[in-house]
Structure formats: structure tokens, C-alpha cells
User: Which sequence fits this backbone?
């Protein structure tokens, strides 16, 4: 009986040795856990590659939107009797100054804030409908901004400038610019979450300088790292807006209200970048949802 026990133990050791050698020679033919590990590794590599391709597009959109807002605001201010199309509350300052000085009230300054608020509300309703339908909001909202800027350019280029700031077309043109910037503001809040505002720089400059101070003198490493990341997001938008202001002033001096072709063209570029970003995200989602089937001899799914 003792001999039989020893014989059985030897058989068990030989079987274990053969199994180990087989696993070393043919690791790809492993079963359940090995197969899952290979699939997870492949998906992780695909996800990293797709994210690397889409990330530059995600960083570029806020920068381009900053240039659009800066140039549109400057051109509107110079060519439309001091109308702020992006820094919308600035119109309250201009309106109050005109009222105190006894100057004639300009309709576009009076209507800018209500129209801005109405467009924000309508844009949110549109985005809500798109979300309920399972559609992305970025491209439709970017397209909406492009169309409003095209209308702004056409009206200003063909019929402007106006000696009478309260002329119907002058007021209409100004409010088209305001509506375009309202859509851009809503777009940043709805489709570009965790992105700094692209049309009003007071908060951005405040946040950037505080974050810079936190990075330099902060004692909490976690807070300093968070401040560094936030500053790296905020600075390109500030730079883009300032660049847009300079370019807008230069273009308006050279081409008048036709200089609105600058922000309109940039909006088309932003729409193209947004399309690339969404296509990359869609392809990534399809790839990750597709089942991975390993056709290996001796392996069952």
C-alpha cells in the first residue's frame, strides 16, 4: 500500500512539472485569468493612444475660443459705438456713463444684456434636447456660434458702419455678435466642463495669479500640484484672449467691420477641431465596446 501511495505521488509531481513547462513554453495559451489580463492590457494601450491623439484637440479649443472672444469684443467696441459683445456687463458701465452725461441712449447697449440672457437660456434648452436624444452638444453649439458670427459678419460688412448707432441694422448687427458670444459662453459651461471662461478674463487672471502664488509659496504639495494644473489650463485662455484683442484692433484698423472675418474663420477652425475631438471619442468608445475574441487552439471563450 505504501508503494502505491509513493507511485501516485510521483505521478502527481510529474503532471505538475509537465503543466509548468507547458505554461512556460506557451504562455499565450493560458486560460481565463491570463486571457483577461491580455485583453485588459490591449484595451489600456488603445485607450492611452486614443487619449494622446484627442488631448491636443481638447487643449486647443479653449485657446481658439479665447482668441475669438477677444477679437470679437475689440472689433465690436471699435466699430459699433463702444458695444461689448463678449464682456457683456461692460455695456452697463457704458450705458450708465451715457445716461449721466446726458448722451443719447444706444439701443444695442440697452438690449445687450437681455439678449445675452435669452440666448443662454435658449442654448441650454437646445443642449438639453440633444442630451436627451443621446447626442453630443459640442459640435451643434460650435456650429450655432459659426452661423451667428457669419450673420454678424455679413450684416456689418455689407451695411456697416453706421452713423446712426440706433439704426435698425446697426442694432441687429450688434445683437448678433452678442448672441454669438452668449452661445460660446454656454458652450464652455455645457460641453467643456472644467475649462476656464473664454470671454471674461477678470476671474481667470485672479485665479491664475492666486494659483501661481500657491505654486511658489504653498506648503501643501497636493494643493500646489492642483494649482499648477489649473494655472496650465488658465494661462492659454488668457493669452488667447489678449492675442485676440491685439489682432482685432489691428484688423479693424485695416479692414473696418470686415475684420469680423477673423473670429468667423477661427470659429470654423474651432468647429473642425471639435469634430476631430468627437470623432476620436466616438472611435474610442466603439473600439472599447467591441468584444475581444482570442482564437487560440485549445481555448474556449
Assistant:
Amino acid at each position: 500500500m505504501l508503494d502505491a501511495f509513493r507511485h501516485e505521488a510521483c505521478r502527481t509531481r510529474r503532471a505538475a512539472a509537465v503543466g509548468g513547462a507547458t505554461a512556460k513554453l506557451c504562455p499565450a495559451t493560458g486560460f481565463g485569468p491570463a486571457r483577461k489580463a491580455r485583453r485588459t492590457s490591449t484595451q489600456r494601450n488603445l485607450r492611452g493612444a486614443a487619449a494622446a491623439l484627442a488631448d491636443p484637440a481638447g487643449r486647443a479649443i479653449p485657446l481658439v475660443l479665447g482668441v475669438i472672444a477677444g477679437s470679437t469684443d475689440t472689433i465690436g467696441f471699435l466699430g459699433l459705438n463702444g458695444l461689448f459683445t463678449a464682456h457683456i456687463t461692460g455695456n452697463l458701465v457704458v450705458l450708465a456713463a451715457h445716461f449721466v452725461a446726458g448722451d443719447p441712449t444706444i439701443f444695442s447697449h440697452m438690449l445687450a444684456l437681455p439678449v445675452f440672457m435669452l440666448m443662454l437660456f435658449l442654448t441650454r434648452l437646445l443642449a438639453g434636447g440633444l442630451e436627451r436624444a443621446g447626442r453630443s452638444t459640442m459640435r451643434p453649439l460650435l456650429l450655432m456660434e459659426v452661423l451667428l458670427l457669419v450673420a454678424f459678419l455679413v450684416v456689418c460688412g455689407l451695411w456697416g458702419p453706421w452713423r446712426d448707432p440706433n439704426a435698425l441694422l446697426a442694432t441687429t448687427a450688434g445683437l448678433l455678435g452678442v448672441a454669438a458670444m452668449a452661445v460660446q459662453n454656454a458652450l464652455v459651461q455645457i460641453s467643456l466642463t472644467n475649462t476656464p471662461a473664454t470671454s471674461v478674463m477678470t476671474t481667470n487672471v485672479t485665479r491664475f495669479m492666486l494659483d501661481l502664488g500657491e505654486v511658489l509659496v504653498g506648503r501643501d504639495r497636493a494643493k500646489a500640484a492642483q494649482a499648477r494644473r489649473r494655472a496650465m489650463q488658465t494661462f492659454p485662455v488668457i493669452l488667447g484672449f489678449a492675442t485676440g484683442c491685439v489682432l482685432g484692433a489691428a484688423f479693424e484698423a485695416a479692414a473696418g467691420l470686415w475684420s469680423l472675418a477673423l473670429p468667423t474663420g477661427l470659429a470654423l477652425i474651432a468647429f473642425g477641431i471639435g469634430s476631430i475631438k468627437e470623432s476620436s471619442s466616438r472611435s474610442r468608445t466603439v473600439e472599447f465596446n467591441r468584444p475581444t475574441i482570442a482564437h487560440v487552439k485549445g481555448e474556449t471563450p
Observations:
- The longest helix spans residues 32-79.
